[in-house]
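lol forgot to send this yesterday, sorry. struct tokens for the thing we talked abt
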């Protein structure tokens, strides 16, 4: 009987597609890596193996995509319209961002979105089942959100990774005591005033080039 079971196991191994065998054996966690310089999204294992790569369309100059380390916090089917056939939400503190399909595939590869990451529907449909809620998402790109920009002026109401970086620097220097959440709110504005007054900078309540140079954000 044991011999029969062994023979059957060998036959199944021979007739099953190799991809099916590998899929069953693969238990490694995966993560999403997005490179904004390349406009590409990669699915990788924690060991560094690249499983897939896709072209994307990230945020435009005035509506940059977030940069940093996040997680998938939502999955949804058939959003339709400009969001295509699949949605993978990302837990960005300062707004609603996600990886999704599109009804304008000709724009893939260009900086055209409002900050989300557009993919061709056929590509997001391949990625969707491989990504779970809680999957790590690492977004790597220019500090200013776009490769053509050397700096941005931040004002009350501004949001994004650059605001979060400023909050971090102000907190480390003892000027800011609120949440580092990428939102230029009243508490952040008061911290900016304290920082500028204490360091002898023009007191504007905004973050401009001189302030970023002083904080070591740009050179």
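and heres what i got for the seq, position by position
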């Amino acid at each position: 009987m044991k011999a029969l079971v062994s023979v059957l196991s060998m036959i199944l191994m021979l007739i099953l597609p190799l991809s099916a065998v590998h899929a069953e054996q693969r238990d490694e966690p995966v993560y999403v890596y997005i490179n904004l310089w390349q406009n590409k999204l990669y699915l990788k294992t924690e060991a560094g193996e690249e499983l897939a790569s896709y072209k994307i369309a990230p945020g435009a100059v005035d509506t940059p995509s977030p940069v940093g380390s996040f997680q998938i916090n939502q999955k949804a089917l058939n959003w339709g319209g400009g969001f295509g056939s699949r949605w993978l939400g990302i837990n960005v503190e300062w707004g609603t961002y996600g990886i999704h399909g599109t009804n304008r595939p000709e724009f893939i590869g260009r900086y055209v979105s409002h900050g989300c990451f557009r993919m061709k529907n056929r590509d997001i449909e391949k990625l969707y089942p491989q990504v779970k809620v809680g999957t790590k998402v690492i977004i790597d790109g220019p500090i200013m959100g776009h490769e053509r920009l050397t700096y941005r002026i931040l004002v009350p109401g501004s949001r994004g990774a650059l605001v979060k970086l400023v909050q971090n620097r102000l907190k480390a220097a003892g000027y800011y005591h609120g949440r580092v959440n990428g939102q230029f709110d009243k508490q952040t504005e008061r911290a900016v005033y304290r920082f500028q007054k204490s360091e002898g900078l023009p007191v504007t309540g905004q973050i401009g080039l001189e302030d970023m140079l002083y904080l070591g954000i740009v050179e």
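The domain at 161-215 is CATH 1.10.101.10 (Muramoyl-pentapeptide Carboxypeptidase; domain 1). anyway ping me if u want another try
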